[in-house]
Amino acid sequence: MAKVIVVGGGAAGLVAAWRAASLGHDVQLLEANNRLGVKLRISGGGKCNITHGGSPRALLEAFSRPQARFLRPSLLAFDNQAVLDLLHREGVETYTRDNGRVFPLDRQGSAGAVVAAFETLVRRAGVDVRTGARVTALRGQAPRVDGLALDGVPITGEVFIFATGGASYPETGTRGEVLGWLKGLGVPVRPWFPALAPIPLQCPRPAWEGVSLREGELRLAAGVTGRRLSAYKGDLVFTKAGVSGPAALELSQAAEQARRDGAAWLTYAAQLEPAETVEAALLEEQRTNPRLLAATWLQRHLPERLVAPLLQEAGLERDLMLKELPKAGRKALVALVTALPLGEPQPVPLARGEVAAGGVELGAVDPRTMALNGWDNLRVCGELLDVDGPVGGYNLQAAFSTGYAAGSILKN
Ligand SMILES: Cc1cc2nc3c(=O)[nH]c(=O)nc-3n(C[C@H](O)[C@H](O)[C@H](O)COP(=O)(O)OP(=O)(O)OC[C@H]3O[C@@H](n4cnc5c(N)ncnc54)[C@H](O)[C@@H]3O)c2cc1C
């Protein structure tokens, strides 16, 4: 039996602490906040998208290839069904939406019910839970951690598990400082990088705040005339400062990377067919329906609120009929529905991401135990690792699976 110190009482730390205590270890869980699972409580807009349905293999495919390879052993050992079985045994009923996302049954405070279940599990397993306990220093040198400091008070242990999360939403306790400590000890890390965040734009459209573009594709190119870098099919919502919604979140990391590389340009294709096909259809419409207003045609593809300002920007009269539309006007209309220019992204805020990319490099960690290579008693799990999945329950599942692996400490 070992004395195990788990730092961080979020998704990964709760599972790590419960698992280690269930194996008979003497576990202390240190959480900076005054209560456990603060980020879990706000996840999924307070509803908590716990995991994603489907086979573990399908789940892994949502991650980048190196991340999937790393996650495979821990996810197979504690997969989505295992998480749900555990929660069901604690009385948390769940349902799966058509898009595969799994949530607790829709009730007031459903994310809180998930946290309560994990809290019950850790306490029942005998974990010594300390809240309001922010660890301020890590002492040691490879291959051993000697101890921690909690506001100057030393904490000793035999195994140390860091589950301190990422660096977004710092108000939830995740300030990201532990990555710097690990780096200082020679652990390979990739700096925090924004992901799954809204994208601010150089020329935002505050007047369009709240307008959604649906079922199209957000596209990222290396500059106005540059090559296509990335694209994501999904809805987009205009905000005061730029764009948000599923497509913006999913493309935010690539947009920030392109911006840092020197050239990034965003467009939204409300109509997914090629411009030539859309133009041919518009030509046919001009022939068969010459008195149709250009505004009415545009409104078939874009929200009504955008029609008048976009026509004005394109230099077209509001009451223009298709029969009066010159070739240049036709091209302009087609461009608006196939490549609505959103423009250059501004720095994507790390703090507003649903996850932070970057973290401890995966090559430095044993994927079965989350032990750091070259260290005898140091493990890391959850978002502190360089793992970032898409929206859909994948990030919590990664935290649960890697937490379980970190807590699976064999007895000597
Ligand atoms: C708004 C929002 C919505 C989200 N929705 C979803 C969703 O629906 N589904 C999904 O899969 N993912 C979602 N995510 C992502 C998901 O919540 C995280 O990936 C996941 O919580 C990471 O778990 P973790 O245990 O690694 O870190 P966290 O849950 O962030 O836990 C880390 C804990 O460590 C503590 N800590 C940090 N430093 C110290 C220290 N020095 N000493 C002591 N304690 C410390 C923090 O206070 C924190 O409680 C969302 C994220 C956000 C921000």
From TrEMBL:
Cofactor(s), by name: FAD
Record's signal peptide: none
NCBIfam families: aminoacetone oxidase family FAD-binding enzyme
RsdA/BaiN/AoA(So)-like Rossmann fold-like domain residues: 3-408
Pfam families: HI0933_like, HI0933_like_1st
PANTHER family: OS12G0638800 PROTEIN
Domain of life: Bacteria
Organism annotation: Candidatus Geothrix odensensis
Annotated keywords: FAD, Flavoprotein
Domain RsdA/BaiN/AoA(So)-like insert per the UniProt entry, residue ranges: 194-341
Name this protein carries in UniProt: Aminoacetone oxidase family FAD-binding enzyme
Gene3D superfamilies: FAD/NAD(P)-binding domain (3.50.50.60), HI0933 insert domain-like (1.10.8.260), Translation factors (2.40.30.10)
Coiled-coil boundaries: none
